[in-house]
Design brief:
Layout: H1 16-51, H2 59-98
Keywords: Coiled coil
Length: about 100
């Protein structure tokens, strides 16, 4: 068996900026999710106003949307913190290399 280095088996390396990019993208996605959730809540309020007493069936839907909003806000906070952490690490590494 020949002793060859297979490029498919070579471990990939990632730096702090790669991780910052990934977390920043996730952060952006969660911001969009928050916009969508806010829009849905606004539309439900409009429907409730227009339907009056018939709107009582929206309780469960509003509860589920609140749950999604909670998850989105927590994920957004996590991704913001991680993106900032990796940006700081990248800046520190970049500064150390230039010294």
């Amino acid at each position: 068996m020949p002793n060859q280095i297979n490029s498919n088996n070579t471990p990939k390396t990632y730096d702090a900026m790669d991780l910052n990019d990934a977390y920043s993208l996730a952060e952006c996605d969660m911001r969009w999710m928050s916009v969508a959730i806010t829009d849905i809540k606004k539309r439900i309020k409009e429907l409730e106003k227009n339907l009056g007493i018939l709107a009582t069936g929206f309780y469960d839907l509003k509860h589920v949307i609140d749950l999604y909003q909670y998850v989105a806000e927590n994920r957004l906070q996590h991704y913001e913190e991680e993106a900032e952490t990796y940006q700081t690490e990248y800046n520190a590494n970049k500064k150390a290399v230039t010294l």
